[in-house]
UniProtKB/TrEMBL annotation:
It is a peripheral membrane protein. Keywords: Cell membrane, Coiled coil, DNA-binding, Isomerase, Membrane, Topoisomerase. SMART domains: TOP4c. Its main location: membrane. The record marks 125 as: Transition state stabilizer. This is DNA topoisomerase 4 subunit A. It comes from Fodinicurvata halophila. InterPro entries: GyrA/parC_rep (IPR006691), Gyrase/topoIV_suA_C (IPR035516), Topo_IIA-like_dom_sf (IPR013760), Topo_IIA_A/C_ab (IPR013758), Topo_IIA_A_a_sf (IPR013757), Topo_IIA_dom_A (IPR002205), TopoIV_A_Gneg (IPR005742), Type_II_DNA_Topoisomerases (IPR050220). It catalyses: ATP-dependent breakage, passage and rejoining of double-stranded DNA. It comes from the Bacteria. Residues 38-502 form the Topo IIA-type catalytic domain. The gene is parC.
Length: 745
């Protein structure tokens, strides 16, 4: 029985928890980065994909042979090479077979391997698979010592460290992965364009990224679409190895009877599930966020066909599609982060030139290793052939030794100075090989192999010739995937950055009249319609109406608080009229000790008059007070102990300002004396010995000053010379009959 370790045991060490966690987390991070998530720059594969292809090759699942059950492949991969869950391995295999996920699939699947709608593949017991010709190119030369092998996880077999990769898989099929502290995201590209860039780099080793992007201009996605990104952005992305591309769906219009039309989407962005896209559009329709769209239908078969029906023939299709691009995945941003493992197994971000150069260096290494392997084979064969020729020249003596000597092998080696290999070959020779014709064939083979040996030795010494051979290999690949073939032609159109399309808010939200109510306790809601009689409106116990504003669902409203901050809310975001609404502080970060002074519908060209109760204020443009965040925008800065008291709209025709204090003294001065500012305390409007500002507004001097004299009654004072003065004066007592509330309305 094993004893329990104790602190005195030599096998137990005291380790700080932070050190133990750091060491173990680092080990986990390195394992994730190098053994799971990041692809190798040379073959563009993660370990699970590389092991899948290698296992399928061992099962002889090449394109010339039949299919085998996917479960058989997954079982071999899990048992021999990849000790992880079978579902994870099968999911990786499924993706290699999907022509909407990979630009050039590596697995030829038979059965249900999922679809562009986002449906899952059938269980592995139902599906079958074999390798494609592209996968065979990745494996080409693996049996010729082209790459290193290492022991598998259990040490019972060997697996390739990297594949020979006669196909530029990293850029052609792309890669996605998330590791610890880093990620990779490489979109697919057109292999014909990649070959053109590779050949240019071979011919011009010092070529920059600009020249390479001329030949390999942008990603090419299996699902097509239109890339709407400026050339400068594309170039900068490939130079840095980081960035993103805007990808849009391809669409056109079809004319119908009566002058109407419908929009048909024929290609959707990469990795966007079609069913989920249709569901999102339908949800926006139900939420009345796409007011110009009447219906959406999925009429797809083998080809994508989404039909969008506009609400009327007067709807501009460009505006409708722009609203869809902004609200749905008909437009997406495809990230690019070329974070890969280099030949030293070190993760780093590479630019386009470095990725292409790493691939070419790998191909040169593969060529050298295959050449040396072939030379070793030729040397062994020439050694055997030399032995055969010696045997034919001394045939009678060889036969005598074999028939009469007790140890014919040793005697052959002694008599004819043969090697051990040559002696074994002669002893294993069949009798029918002793024909004269066979001798002539051996001499021809010896001459042919000698010539090939000399040629390969020259290849090892001549660097320029090696690059010509690699260039010829790339030309052959480029011809196989010519742009004239269905698999080789570019699927994604390279467009230009779209011109800005102004989308009226009515195209996104139904314009309906509403009445916004804000109670004294800060509960806000929007009643449908414009209401003049609100006597039947209910509030919570102890609460009552404070602010009322007539607006539309397409409007923004500005809320001005006693702290001098402006808050902005979309009317469409307000709770409906059922119930009591919701607390305003759920929508804006209004401090508990502050209150709302005024509500106003936002008018981009409008101006506001702001004032604090200490008698300071200024004019401000409404464009300068719109807040982008919940905590609002500080505009008026009241003095310590003062509060923002007034926020009034200003008409362009108003030429005078009137202010009244708590002392009922009234002052009128020219509007020109009131400055327009973006923020601050403002200027002195009126001076007070006691009290402060009670009310202020702007008006047209020639029309006279008006104020409320009770319900439904308005009084006007035309003779205003007595109260006219300069800004900052004390003013004179208000005219007889002025409002007892000391306010103008």
């Amino acid at each position: 029985m094993t004893s329990t370790p104790t602190a005195d045991s030599p096998n137990v060490q005291d380790v700080r928890l932070v050190d133990a966690l750091s060491e173990r987390y680092l080990s986990y991070a390195l394992s994730t980065i190098m053994s799971r998530s990041l692809p190798d720059v040379r073959d563009g594969l993660k370990p699970v994909h590389r092991r899948l292809l290698h296992a399928m090759q061992l099962l002889r699942l090449d394109p010339e042979h039949g299919y085998k059950k996917a479960a058989r492949v997954v079982g071999d991969v899990m048992g021999k090479f990849h000790p992880h869950g079978d579902q994870a391995i099968y999911d990786a295999m499924v993706r290699l077979a999907q022509n909407f996920s990979l630009r050039y699939p590596l697995v030829d699947g038979q059965g249900n391997f999922g679809n562009i709608d986002g449906d899952n593949a059938a269980a592995m017991r139902y599906t079958e698979a074999r390798l494609t010709s592209v996968a065979m190119r990745l494996l080409e030369g693996i049996d010729e010592d082209a790459v290193d092998f290492r022991p598998t996880y259990d040490g019972e077999a060997q697996e390739p460290v990297v594949l020979p990769a006669a196909f530029p898989n990293l850029l052609a099929n792309g890669a996605q992965g998330i590791a610890v502290g880093m990620a990779t995201a490489i979109p697919p590209h057109n292999v014909s364009e990649i070959c053109e860039a590779l050949r240019h780099l071979i011919a011009h080793p010092e070529a920059g990224v600009e020249a390479l992007v001329e030949r390999m201009p942008a990603p090419d996605f299996p699902t097509g679409g239109i890339l709407v990104e400026g050339r400068e952005t594309l170039l900068e992305t490939y130079k840095s190895g980081r960035g993103a591309f805007r990808l849009r769906a391809r669409w056109n219009t079809e004319s119908l009877k009566g002058g109407t039309y419908q929009i048909v989407v024929t290609e959707i962005p990469y990795q966007v599930p079609k069913a989920r896209l249709v569901e999102k559009i339908a949800d926006l329709l139900g939420a009345r966020k796409l007011t110009q769209l009447a219906d959406v239908r999925d009429e797809s078969d083998e080809q994508v066909r989404l039909v969008l029906e506009p609400r009327s023939r007067n709807v501009d299709p460009e505006v409708l599609m722009e609203s869809l691009f902004r609200q749905t995945d008909l437009e997406v941003r495809i990230p690019l982060n070329m974070n890969v493992l280099d030949a030293d197994n070190t993760p780093r971000v590479m630019d386009l030139r470095e990725v292409l150069q790493a691939y070419l260096t790998h191909r040169e290494t593969v060529l050298l290793r295959r050449t040396r392997n072939r030379l070793d084979q030729i040397a062994r064969r020439l050694e055997v052939l030399s032995g055969y020729l010696i045997a034919f020249l001394n045939l009678d003596e060889v036969i005598r030794i074999i028939r009469e000597e007790d140890d014919p092998k040793a005697e052959l080696i002694r008599t004819f100075e043969l090697s051990d290999t040559q002696a074994d070959a002669i002893l294993n020779m069949r009798l029918r090989s002793l024909r004269r014709l066979e001798e002539m064939e051996l001499r021809r083979e010896h001459e042919r192999l000698t010539e090939e040996q000399a040629d390969l030795n020259v290849l090892l010494e001549d660097g320029e010739r090696r690059w010509r051979v690699i260039d010829d290999q790339i030309v052959g690949l480029q011809q196989e995937f010519s742009t004239q073939t269905p698999l080789g032609r570019r699927h994604t159109e390279i467009g230009t950055a779209p011109a800005a399309v102004v989308i009226p808010l009515e195209a996104v939200i139904d314009k309906e009249p509403v009445t916004v109510l804000l109670s004294e306790k800060g509960w806000i809601r929007a009643l449908k319609g414009h209401h003049d009689d609100l006597s039947e409106t209910r509030y919570k116990d102890g609460d009552r109406q404070k602010h009322v504003l007539k607006a539309h669902t397409t409007d923004k409203i500005l809320l001005f608080a006693t702290n001098g901050r402006f808050y902005t809310l979309g009317v469409d975001k307000l709770p409906g009229g059922r119930g009591f609404g919701e607390p305003l502080r759920l929508s804006v970060d209004l401090p508990n000790d502050q209150d709302i002074v005024a509500l106003k519908v936002y008018t981009p060209s409008g101006k506001l008059l702001l004032a604090s109760d200490d008698g300071r204020g200024f004019l401000v443009s409404e464009e300068d007070v719109v807040a982008q965040t919940k905590n609002g925008k500080q505009v008026l800065n009241p003095a310590k102990g003062a509060e923002a008291a007034i926020c009034r709209p200003v008409s362009d025709s108003d030429d005078a300002v009137v202010v009244v204090g708590d002392n009922r003294k009234l002052l009128i001065f020219s509007r020109e004396e009131l400055p327009e500012m973006t923020r601050g305390r403002g200027v002195i409007l009126q001076r007070y010995k006691d009290g402060g500002l009670s009310d202020i507004k702007t008006f047209r001097f020639e029309e006279g000053l008006t104020w409320s004299a009770g319900p439904g009654r308005i009084r006007t004072e035309s003779n205003l010379m007595e109260w006219q003065g300069k800004r900052g004066q004390a003013g004179r007592l208000a005219p007889r009959g002025f409002s007892s509330s000391n306010r103008f309305d």
